[in-house]
Amino acid sequence: VKLLSFEIASKASFGVIVQDGVMELAGRLGSEVHSVQSLFESQGLGMVQELIEHSEPDHSLDAIEFLPPVPTPQKIFCVGVNYTNRNEEYKDESTLPKYPSIFMRTPGSFVGHRGSITRPPESNQLDYEGEIAIVIGIGGRRISERDAARHIGGLTCINEGTIRDWTRHGKFNVTQGKNFDRTGSIGPWIVTGDEFSSFENLSVTTRVNGEIRQNDTTANLLFPFSYLISYISTFSELVPGDVIATGTPTG
Questions:
Q1: Each residue of 38-54: b (16+ CB within 10 Å) or e?
Q2: What range(s) does the Fumarylacetoacetase-like C-terminal domain occupy (predicted)?
Q3: Which end of the chain has a smaller Cβ tally under 10 Å, C or N?
Q4: What's the structural domain count of the chain?
Q5: Are residues 90 and 32 part of one domain?
């Protein structure tokens, strides 16, 4: 199932991909389910699967404006330097890290699929970072690695756009360079976790004007999805709709 958030006729809504179009879910699942986030909170994915079996789309993809799949997540965690060759790229002769490097981003630093990102006038170093992002479907605290997969609501794509020179302003953090408004993008939709037999060998490919710049697989992650969910939930309770950007390959 592919879940998405969008605007049409200046009205925000959410839905599911059906036959290369969009079926709106607003009003079809009860008053308590009014967004992708509340759909996960209500564990209503089964109802969606029943709805789409014999349904027609309400809108074409060209008729909608994509929003980030979860427009206002409570938390967006990002993981730095999480591919083996990415660690080598830094060439600082450091050993492999024992723990992941985690930082946070604001929802306002992202736009949806096909949205225009902003190159800020303060820098000419806007850079791309193609990644897979986890969207939490079932919340929890101190989640074990063994149980982590069932907490994954789905996966989406993310360009974790970065103002490279501003990441070097602070000695111990990259917050400034990671949170300029509208410098990254998420989407177009969430592919639900049940669509994946495994999360351990997924391809990550980034193209810039058609040219492949990044190409790797999650088999080369230093910290796999299950570890990240377990580690992050140790210090912060995860809730449905939270996003974890799992790191970008070299390139």
A1: bbbbeebbebbeebbee
A2: 75-251
A3: N
A4: 2
A5: no
